[in-house]
User: What shape does this take?
Amino acid sequence: MRRTNTADSGHTDPLTRTAAVGLSGGVDSSTALWLLHQAGYRVVGVTLRMVCLAKSAASDRNCCSIEAIGRAARLCERIGVPHYVVNVESRFRELVIGDFVKQYRRGRTPNPCIVCNEKIKFPALAEAADRLGLASIATGHHARIVRGPRGGAHLAAAVDVRKDQSYFLYRVPVTVLERSLFPIGTMQKVEVRRIAAGEGIEAVASRESQDVCFLPEGDLHAFLDRFIESVRGEAVDTAGRVLGSHRGISRYTVGQRRGLGISGAAPLYVKTIDPRRNLIVLAPDEELYADSVRCRSVRLRSRSLSTPLVAKIRYRHPAATVAEIAWRDGVLTVAFEQPQRAPTPGQSLVLYRDGVVMGGGVIEGVD
Assistant: This one.
């Protein structure tokens, strides 16, 4: 852990009012740190240096660029709190990028942000807090912690539903959530920006975080081509009739239409991907809908799976009302009141009750 300045806040708050704040240099995390500092917390900024793959080391599209780290350090110096940089690159390469490539090799579409939060970001912040003798960790995620009847921590959706990020956090261990703070989770994004602008927080002019932080140039196929050999194969319809060819299964995802290079009487979409036979199966839009999905690698926050529940089958997908739910032999099966379009293996299904995260799992297939 490398410290970038030696300033100290000088606060003498009790241990319970201390926090290691994950500081990316962006507007959300910077405002979160400022809000906690203003509330009387003794805060320490912690920037995680992951993997920088931009063509320029200073690229502002890069999650841990020199510019982003510089903004984080300057904010901490300005308000007089310590700032550290923690290098987690090797773990990130193995657990996030390694899994990302593995899943695409299998014809799946992973969500690396969920893996990162579970295995890299929150554990690293907790480790830093422990080393520094700090009680809490905090991030700029748009999410909330609510307390149950017995005082336990439960993850909940943010007040700003358009920016809610609780979907990405459903796998963060409860023991970590118990000490987590989300200072901007009760605020609208416009309010966060207003505070940042009013306080002259430098990050207010920076770009929003990218969906996949280690693809700073936004070229998924170019990235995957470094690791996966594209083997051409057949594109077939649901009856097995050959319609054309594909350029390698890692270039496709369920629900995709663009880039197929195959025409039909009606627009065609990727319905399934079969890595064993190196096939993609195409179908019209109406055949993409599923009544239920099966999930593995399940994380549940409650023993009660009774309805009413709603489920999100991907981050931007509208929440769907759950009709039935069952969990047997490590498989979570969720049936919907209305069929859902293109549930995608590798993506996560996350369950909510009244805005509180009940758990979720990784989609394996549909019924």
Notes: The CA atoms of residues 35 and 318 lie 31 Å apart. The domain at 2-205 is CATH 3.40.50.620 (Rossmann fold). Residues 5-14 have pLDDT under 50 and may be disordered. The radius of gyration is 22 Å.
